[in-house]
Amino acid sequence: MMHLKKVQFAALAGIAAVLMNGGCGGSGGPPSSNAINTVISLPEEGRSYIAESQQPIYQTTPPASGPQVPKAPAPGFYTNPQKSTALVNALFHSNIVIYYDPTTVTTAETTALKALATANALPYKGVVIVPFAGLPTPFTVSAWQHLLRLSHYDTGAIANFISLYIGKGPMTAAGTEPAPIENFPDEGHTHVAIGTTITYATNPPNSGPHYPIPEPVGFYDTTQESGYLVHAMEHSNVIIYYDPTTVKPDTLTALKALAAKNTGSFGGIIVTPRTDATYEVIAVAWQNWVRQNSFDAKQIQQFMDLYMGHGPEQIPHSD
Fold it and tell me: How, if at all, do strands 267-273 and 218-219 pair?
């Protein structure tokens, strides 16, 4: 007979608030995301790789981080619009993207922009210049997590922005590319009876039907059933799988420490074994995973920062 697992619900740790300066009641705080002629620093919106057919909703227009396709336009001057998901990938690879309004740009400004693209044509340190009609300002300069909206073409401001941020994104050179974070369609949230055989589109699963009871967070040295683990991911937990036949002793120690440190029922870690011929470690959150041939602690922490506590269900409730 199947042994029913119990889950303990943790008290909500706290409420995070993001305060933005709206121009009222004081002069403190960061500039609004719509501020003009000043550099805006923005929170990261993620870095998942998604399919060409997917179009995420970004928090800013144009975006300065977030889901992306795994291929970017080369540095240069473009007269045709480029997909936002590809331009975010250009930012991810430490390039600068400059948007211009094709309905208002002058011949002199076009000449200056082309010269700027020619002078900054290196991979991981280039400038991509694209048209974008409908922006609130004639020009917008972007880097990873930074925007500069300009009311007019300002050579000095653009040069200063480029010097500050070009070549300083998450990926700064060929060969430094980590394993990609991959994003998948939602396979559903249906509860099925414990013991039901569930077929998932990916292995390991990252969403879909699951048992009514989630796997408790913690470290496991025996394989756990997917039906419980998927429910745990719905509760905003991250699953880390390790291959018990190939995992290094120091990797195992690090994973145990992660599980001991992150114990929230709606923002914790489950570490469990899974035999895999290719990957030593796989970290999975709802609709996302990163697969590592060799354990990369920094990237695992980044993955946790992006997705732990941010799944479909984020607070204790009865389900």
Answer: parallel
